[in-house]
Design brief:
Elements (H helix, E strand, L loop, with lengths): L18 H9 L3 E3 L18 H11 L3 H8 L2 H14 L6 H13 L4 H6 L2 E3 L23 H4 L10
Parallel strand pairs: 1-2
Helix pairs in contact: 2-4, 4-5
Length: about 160
């Protein structure tokens, strides 16, 4: 077991709002993934014959926003290995080490919050269509009482 020194996943994940991470972002930058996900068809399955469950997971994962980044980086094999491992981990007789591997895959593929931060990915805010609002009505804002409003005037000679 190595001792000391920085490791790839040591320390807290980067925070896009911190000044230090902003300086680091100038070097690597944060990537914003589309909220609507990847619109293209999933790539061809790269491993041996898949099960129906594996094909369902494959289609589902490639439709996520992370699918855009995976396609750009050519991570078809990594995603397929994750899908195969996940399908195996879902079975009742799955070994514990297989289930532990899932967590590693989630982080490396950016499917967990920590993984998204480590990959410096964020998902764009979803664009929602605004509902039409009725005609504008002039409403005066409610005035909150001030500290002065709470003071009571005491006539001289009474408060003594």
């Amino acid at each position: 077991m190595p001792r000391g020194g920085a490791r790839a996943v040591s320390g807290p994940p980067p925070d896009p709002r911190s000044l230090r991470s902003t300086k680091a972002a100038d070097k690597g930058g944060w990537r914003t993934l589309p909220a609507e996900g990847r619109q293209a068809e999933p790539p061809e399955w790269p491993l041996t014959t898949p099960t129906d469950r594996e094909l369902d997971l494959w289609d589902e994962l490639w439709a996520k926003p992370q699918g855009v980044a995976w396609a750009d980086m050519g991570q078809e094999l990594e995603v397929a290995l994750f899908v195969r491992t996940l399908a195996e981990a879902e079975t009742p007789e799955a070994r514990v080490d297989v289930k532990k591997m899932i967590r590693s895959y989630l982080d490396s593929l950016g499917l967990s919050v920590a993984g998204m931060n480590r990959n410096r990915w964020k998902i764009a805010p979803a664009i929602e269509e605004a509902e039409p609002v009725g005609p504008a009505v002039n409403v005066e804002p409610v005035r909150r009482p001030s500290a002065r409003d709470r003071l009571k005037v005491v006539p001289s000679g009474e408060g003594g």
